[in-house]
């Protein structure tokens, strides 16, 4: 399927302040938050080849999963509307079916024409169970189930383009790419380009990501090395702390780059903590990937 939108390479922006200078490190931000107004950041990278692989002759109808604030649901709803491909969203938490509980993300999805179906957390936990998926697929007449976060093997080539763009812009390979991790699909894509990745878990107990990321990578290929940081989750997925919000505000004021509290705020919070602890040898070049998600930024942050 031809995609009606094909964003230009996102900018690579140098960021320098007292912390990076003291660490003697060159920091760049890959501004994937600027890729597309609605299918932003890593969701565009991950969905690109999956959407291209759809054949209009099959009358595709996509079913996917997400929470009430999911950037993936948001992106897939927008992409589906643009491509005139119907979409169904299975939403975690029956309480969100109540109009008073509708989040701005869910409202947007509904306005884009996504059919929303609310399930209990217990049902949602079965989202990887083949029998449950089969049942959902037939109930909703879906031609394809897109896993949570849009993370499939088709996500990897899209994410690799981020690496190719960055290295063309920079003229060389940075020592590290730093990225926030939810399902780990973005980290896996960067690794599959052979680069070294620092992944910052947005969830509590993020150790499981190491295995998930490994499973996404094609076997017997030469991939980069992963360092996973699991201590910067601030209480868990979707949770935040006063320190995190204060950090975000300071970063935004200093650099004019907006962050949000679910993913990119935790990434930069963790990265700056490592910079301050002297984790990186002086002279290192780091590229932090701004994966977007600004629609989920806390109002009034
Ligand atoms: C979904 C999302 C992530 C997590 O990406 P994964 O590939 O699932 O690890 C990171 N940042 C933002 C802004 C996101 O929306």
TrEMBL record:
Residues bearing the modification N6-(pyridoxal phosphate)lysine: 43
Taxonomic source organism: Rhabdobacter roseus
KW Cell wall biogenesis/degradation (keyword) present: no
MF (Gene Ontology): D-cysteine desulfhydrase activity
Cofactor(s) essential for the protein: pyridoxal 5'-phosphate
Protein name: 1-aminocyclopropane-1-carboxylate deaminase/D-cysteine desulfhydrase-like pyridoxal-dependent ACC family enzyme
Family the entry assigns: Belongs to the ACC deaminase/D-cysteine desulfhydrase family.
InterPro entries: ACCD_DCysDesulf (IPR027278), TrpB-like_PALP (IPR001926), TrpB-like_PALP_sf (IPR036052)
């Amino acid at each position: 399927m031809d995609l009606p939108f094909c964003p230009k390479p996102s900018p690579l922006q140098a960021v320098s302040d007292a912390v990076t200078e003291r660490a003697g490190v060159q920091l760049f931000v890959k501004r994937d938050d600027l890729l597309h107004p609605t299918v932003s950041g890593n969701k565009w990278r991950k969905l690109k080849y999956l959407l291209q692989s759809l054949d209009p002759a099959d009358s595709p109808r996509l079913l996917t999963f997400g929470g009430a604030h999911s950037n993936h649901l948001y992106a897939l709803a927008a992409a589906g509307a643009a491509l005139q491909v119907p979409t169904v969203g299975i939403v975690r938490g029956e309480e969100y079916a109540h109009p008073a509980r509708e989040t701005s993300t869910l409202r947007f999805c509904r306005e884009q024409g996504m059919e929303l179906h609310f399930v209990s957390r217990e049902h949602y936990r079965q989202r990887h169970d083949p029998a449950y998926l089969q049942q959902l697929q037939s109930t909703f007449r879906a031609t394809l189930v897109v896993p949570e976060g849009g993370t499939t093997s088709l996500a990897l080539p899209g994410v690799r383009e981020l690496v190719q763009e960055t290295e063309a812009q920079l003229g060389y390979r940075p020592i590290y790419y730093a990225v926030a991790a939810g399902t780990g699909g973005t980290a896996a894509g960067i690794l599959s380009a052979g680069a070294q990745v620092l992944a910052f878990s947005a969830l509590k107990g993020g150790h499981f990501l190491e295995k998930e990321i490994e499973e996404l990578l094609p076997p017997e290929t030469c991939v980069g090395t992963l360092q996973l940081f699991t201590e910067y989750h601030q209480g868990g997925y979707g949770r935040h702390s006063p320190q995190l919000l204060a950090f975000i505000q300071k970063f935004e004021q200093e650099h004019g780059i907006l962050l949000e509290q679910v993913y990119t705020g935790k990434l930069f919070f963790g990265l700056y903590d490592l910079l301050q602890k002297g984790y990186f040898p002086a002279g290192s070049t780091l590229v932090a990937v701004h994966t977007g998600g600004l629609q989920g930024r806390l109002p009034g942050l």
